From TrEMBL:
Pfam family, one: HTH_18
This protein's UniProt keywords: DNA-binding, Transcription, Transcription regulation
GO molecular function: DNA-binding transcription factor activity; sequence-specific DNA binding
Entries under Gene3D superfamilies matching the protein: Homeodomain-like
Domain HTH araC/xylS-type: from-to ranges: 133-231
Domain of life: Bacteria
Stated name of the protein: AraC family transcriptional regulator
SUPFAM superfamilies: Homeodomain-like
């Protein structure tokens, strides 16, 4: 990938960069007005490259976006390795008697090299608070039915005040704002991906009153769910 074009992932725009590997998981919304030049795509279904605990951990490490945006920036040193493995994957997939076990092994090698040569931001002496990671994971699991800070602070054996202090320092937001962000993201995915009614989406997100959900959505986004859906449909035409 070169420096031209952009990728929109879950409604956030990211610039293409030379050596940038976008990691898009099932369920995420991906759109691009201009993909750019020299694009390589590696698409595989969930579970294909996860045949043992080590490979599952590898895939999770590459595609987890809890602590980073949905991409890895690869160093110049890693280009030849990734390009060579990608070529091997493509050539094997083009064979009539494709060895899918070999493809699985090559994909795992590609992902492992991608992690090895990924540039990591310098964090001089700064250590990530594991409780923030745990909170993000808890929100991912429970945001549909648990929308109050108290549930998460209890799970982490902290007071709500202390948890909010930690989150504010790390993310610049409150716990409630993080929960609301996750609800809105899932609502947006459903509004774009599915033909479900706003009422159905509201119920699935844990709102008993669809009208309250619409008011909540409008307060967060400045437009109703229906307006957002129509705007996205219009932009896709």
């Amino acid at each position: 990938m070169d420096n031209s074009g952009t990728q929109s992932i879950d409604f956030v725009e990211y610039q293409n960069r030379l050596g940038r590997l976008f990691t898009i998981s099932p369920g995420q919304v991906h759109h691009s007005e201009f993909m750019g030049k020299n694009i390589r795509m590696l698409i595989f279904r969930p579970g294909f490259a996860e045949t043992n605990p080590r490979s599952t951990q590898l895939v999770n490490s590459v595609f987890s976006t809890i602590e980073r945006p949905p991409y890895l920036d690869c160093s110049d040193e890693g280009f030849p390795y990734l390009e060579s493995i990608y070529t091997l994957i493509r050539e094997e997939c083009e064979r009539e008697d494709c060895d899918w076990d070999l493809v699985e092994s090559l994909i795992n090698s590609f992902l492992r090299y991608a992690l090895r040569f990924a540039k990591t931001p310098s964090q001089k002496g700064e250590q990530k608070d594991a409780r923030i990671v745990q909170l993000t994971e808890l929100i991912e699991l429970h945001y549909r039915e648990q929308k109050k800070c108290q549930f998460y602070s209890d799970a982490l054996a902290l007071t709500s005040k202390r948890l909010n202090e930690l989150v504010k320092a790390d993310r610049g937001k409150t716990v409630t704002q993080l929960i609301h962000d996750r609800i809105i993201l899932e609502a947006n995915r459903e509004l774009v991906f599915s033909t479900k009614t706003v009422k159905t989406i509201a119920f699935e997100l844990g709102f008993d009153d669809p009208a309250y959900f619409s008011r909540f959505y409008r307060k967060q986004k400045g437009e109703t769910p229906a307006e957002f859906r129509h705007r996205c449909l219009d932009s896709a035409i």
